[in-house]
Amino acid sequence: MASGAVSPAFAYTVVYVKDVARSAAFYSAAFGYSVRRLDQSLKWAELESGATTIAFTPLHQRETDALTGAGQAPGAAGERGPVEICFDYADVDAAYRHAVDSGAVPVSAPEQKSWGQKVGYVRDIDGIVVRMGSHVRA
């Protein structure tokens, strides 16, 4: 960074979804997060997720579509959006089963990877890929 630049803090990951309240409830049930805030307008929700907030907002909204373009959900079951959400768990197998039992669509059951991480993949209710993995220590 240039001299005198402000040091940024990663504050939010905003997920564009079809139904904000439904997505917040789904992530709470499937992945174990508490809903911190659900705006009365149902155009914004936040999960209690540590230093970086996971937030949900509608795919299409007057406030941002004209400025930054309309959000695009994966169009077909086999398509993947340009961002993947990743969660670390101590017990990936149990977390994966819980997510699927809570309505996540199974993509790939957890398996041990050559780099030392156990990883499984599901899709959320909007088709967004969620990677569920163990934390790899250096």
Present the secondary structure layout:
Layout: E1 12-17, H1 20-31, E2 34-38, E3 45-48, E4 53-58, H2 62-68, E5 85-88, H3 92-101, E6 105-112, E7 118-123, E8 129-133
Parallel strand pairs: 1-4, 5-8
Antiparallel strand pairs: 2-3, 3-4, 6-7, 7-8
How would you describe this protein?
By secondary structure, the chain is of the alpha/beta class. It folds into 2 domains: 10-60, 2,3-Dihydroxybiphenyl 1,2-Dioxygenase, domain 1 (Roll), CATH 3.10.180; 79-138, 2,3-Dihydroxybiphenyl 1,2-Dioxygenase, domain 1 (Roll), CATH 3.10.180. Helices cover 21% and strands 32% of the residues. The chain contains 3 helices and 8 strands, in the order βαβββαβαβββ. The protein has helices at 20-31, 62-68, 92-101; strands at 12-17, 34-38, 45-48, 53-58, 85-88, 105-112, 118-123, 129-133. The chain is globular. The model has no long low-confidence stretch (mean pLDDT 86). Residues 9-135 form the VOC domain.
